[in-house]
């Protein structure tokens, strides 16, 4: 085992905001910081003492950075200076997912002082999004350049005669003069699974009338290669017998299609990771709540009440996490749906429906950033729980209303009111607006969003309003 506490640079390593590791000259991992463990989806303790490429093996038949890293480490040690590498691809294995395509920008700096001098500090930057976006842009530019290379065609939609530039023949794998003057030879090169649809799309273009026509399908070339082409044109009436012609350009979009598929896979992997993280957070919170419930059995009456309150709060936050990103949007949360699920959880967990207490929601269909949505959910949880706890202790029926709307200036107004005990006596007022944890959570969550909290009460019940200033969702 490595004694990381005795290693030089440990404090610096764990203070670096970028993913970073310390390793020996033969790439044995000495220590990693939290940012590195997060980006590679590993626990820090599982990496200590491992060989870098035993833990992150190269994907079969794909590029990897092992040779470049080893050479960079040797250059850094020989020169005593930082050696930086350009972005490169090295796919990594993620738990329960398999390999995922990743691009990295790395630098290696020698550790020159202390007992472990001769080790290497590696800074790691995940540049997958940057590189894949650049590759997509390059693919688009290449296809545009190919289109400008005069891949021109003119199809007579009555006779099937095809006038085209030599680039069209080359694109379909024909030698000069081999294909003849009719569209049929070119349709024979269309992939069998796409052929009938391609024919129908081409010859029905005239029926669709004026305007652009886009035809995309696969080719199956004589050497077995499959290529994607995109033909873009428009209907033109010819000089003979008013016959319609489909005139346009054709380009090879295979690389663009492949990049599209790679990006879709990358986005699917990222969503899977996000869903898995949320699921694990929810499960972990539910486990904490269960442990608190177990402790209640052997706790005093006063402690038992506090443990049950804590368990309820943890369960509420777990419910919030369970509802995040359910519609696939990782940038915002549907607050109306989230509050609906939260209140349903409170109803079922407290049995208030059996007691004859209703919780009614009037929430506008809003989408907010996750941080703001979670803070609002915590406020609602505390206020509704407070009403359930204090408003109806000698009542068989009651109602709690939750409203969330934007005002004319774009600010958010959250209101939670009940028709239970409001201002029956001074004791009720102090209990309902206590300085306990619930009230502090409400005030803290509101301040986090720049808002303010106001309480009011009368014989008709208790009302709390939270005004949140206008801001981007």
From TrEMBL:
Domain Histidine kinase: 276-472
GO molecular function: ATP binding; protein histidine kinase activity
Broad EC category: transferase
E.C. code: 2.7.13.3
Catalytic activity: ATP + protein L-histidine = ADP + protein N-phospho-L-histidine
Keywords on record: ATP-binding, Kinase, Nucleotide-binding, Phosphoprotein, Transferase, Virulence
Start and end residues of each PAS domain: 165-209
Sequence intervals crossing the membrane: none
Amino-acid biosynthesis listed as a keyword: no
Domain annotation PAC: ranges: 213-265
UniProt cross-references to InterPro entries, sorted A to Z: HATPase_C_sf, HATPase_dom, His_kinase_dom, PAS, PAS-assoc_C, PAS-like_dom_sf, PAS_4, PAS_fold_3
NCBIfam families per record: sensory_box (TIGR00229)
Protein name, per record: histidine kinase
Organism: Limimaricola soesokkakensis
């Amino acid at each position: 085992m490595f004694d990381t506490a005795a290693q030089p640079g440990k404090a610096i390593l764990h203070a670096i905001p970028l993913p970073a590791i310390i390793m020996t000259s033969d790439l044995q991992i000495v220590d990693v910081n939290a940012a590195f463990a997060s980006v590679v989806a590993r626990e820090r303790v599982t990496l200590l003492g491992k060989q870098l490429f035993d833990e992150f093996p190269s994907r079969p038949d794909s590029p990897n950075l092992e040779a470049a890293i080893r050479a960079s480490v040797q250059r850094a040690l020989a020169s005593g200076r930082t050696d930086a590498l350009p972005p490169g691809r090295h796919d990594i294995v993620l738990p329960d997912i398999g390999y995922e395509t990743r691009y990295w920008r790395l630098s290696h700096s020698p550790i020159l002082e202390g007992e472990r001098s001769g080790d290497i500090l590696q800074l790691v930057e995940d540049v997958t999004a940057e590189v894949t976006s650049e590759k997509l842009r390059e693919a688009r530019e290449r296809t545009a350049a190919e289109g400008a290379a005069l891949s021109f065609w003119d199809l007579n939609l009555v006779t099937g005669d095809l006038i085209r530039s030599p680039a069209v023949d080359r694109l379909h794998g024909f030698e000069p003069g081999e294909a003849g003057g009719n569209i049929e030879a070119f349709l024979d090169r269309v992939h069998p699974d796409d052929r009938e649809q391609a024919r129908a799309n081409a010859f029905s273009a005239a029926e669709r009338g004026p305007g652009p026509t886009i035809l995309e399908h696969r080719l199956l070339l004589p050497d077995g290669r499959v290529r994607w082409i995109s033909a873009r044109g428009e209907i033109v009436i010819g000089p003979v017998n008013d016959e319609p012609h489909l005139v346009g350009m054709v380009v090879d979009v295979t690389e663009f299609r492949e990049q599209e598929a790679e990006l879709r896979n990358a986005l699917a992997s990222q969503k899977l990771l996000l869903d898995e993280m949320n699921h694990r957070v929810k499960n972990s919170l539910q486990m904490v709540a269960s442990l608190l419930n177990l402790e209640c059995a052997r706790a005093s009456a006063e402690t038992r009440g506090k443990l049950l309150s804590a368990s309820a709060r943890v369960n509420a936050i777990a419910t919030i996490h369970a509802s995040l990103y359910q519609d696939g949007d990782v940038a915002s949360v549907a607050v109306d749906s989230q509050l609906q699920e939260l209140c349903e959880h409170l109803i079922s967990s407290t049995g208030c429906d059996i007691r004859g207490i209703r919780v009614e929601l009037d929430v506008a269909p809003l989408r907010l950033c996750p941080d703001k949505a979670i803070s609002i959910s915590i406020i609602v949880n505390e206020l509704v729980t407070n009403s359930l706890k204090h408003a109806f202790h000698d009542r068989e029926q009651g109602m709690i209303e939750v409203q969330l709307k934007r005002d004319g200036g774009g600010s958010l107004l959250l209101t939670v009111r009940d028709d239970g005990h409001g201002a029956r006596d001074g004791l009720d007022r102090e209990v309902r607006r206590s300085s306990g944890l619930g009230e502090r959570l409400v005030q803290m969550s509101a301040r986090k969003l720049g808002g303010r909290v106001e309480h009011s009460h009368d014989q008709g019940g208790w009302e709390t309003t939270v005004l949140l200033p206008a801001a981007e969702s």
